[in-house]
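Format is sequence with structure; example below:
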Amino acid sequence: MTDNWNLVGHEWAVEMLKKHVVNAATRHAYLFAGAPGLGRRTLALRFAQALNCQTPVEAGVPCGECRDCRQIAAMQHADLTVIQADSEGGTLKVDQVREARRVLTLKPYQAEHRVALFLRFQEANDNAANALLKTLEEAPSYAVLILTADTPEQLLPTIVSRCEVLRLRPSEIEKVKRELENRRVESSHAKLIAHISGGRFGYALRLVEDSSLLEKREARLNDLQNLISASRVEKFAYADKLAGDKESMRQAILIWLSYWRDVMLRSAQAETPLINVDRNLEIEDLAGRLDLSAARTVVSRFEDSLEKMEKNVNSKLLAEVLLLDLPKV
């Protein structure tokens, strides 16, 4: 395994975590914050490997090959507990945190540290969050808790204050493109995926491995083009269908939000690279027909819709309002 733990990006985070391992200065809790697809979980698993590898390449650099490393990578290690909601966008419940707390009281079975990995902790309900707070206060010396979340602001301040917070950032688009090409992804396809991923290498890999994700994106963007000029009846019908699957609706809104952000950036004549680079002509056309204020309003409505979905607002009503409010261009 390389000095950067075979990760793309996050060099500063790897360097800091390595120092904690080498100097035996590991904190009892960490929060890896950043957008989904940045590699938060992968970084957490590499850190767990660095803490527990029996045959490191050098201090703080796990081998990736020993039994402990392989089991941690597969999330099947006896001293690794992974806690997450049943599905993305679901709810992480108090019983899951309580069970994790019970396991953490046990001495490590085969490694030096017992690691608890709480994924997407912004999905925890209030009782689960309070249970974690108690766990953080009572964690034994051999335990390391790692949380991932989109932003620290989504969590209780009392939880964040007890964690070492690492705010992860996307890599440069060109860097992601090069890494994909190194993995034998054809150049033009690598460029498209690097842009769509917004520099999130974990998401880029998912797009490479699962072609259906690109197909669904294409279908949703085609739907959006049709919806902009659709009648009220057509919009109501689409909203009804969209609201039938909450997770599918959330993914559609995320895709549309990335599109409208591109429109807003072009309206502002910003130099920022487009996410939906394959839709450049459409985006330029829309940006030419909308002023910056109108584009920004659309983006705000989509962002607001995502927040309301997390608060379980009526999905059908939300979809109807969102589609009826699309600008007439």
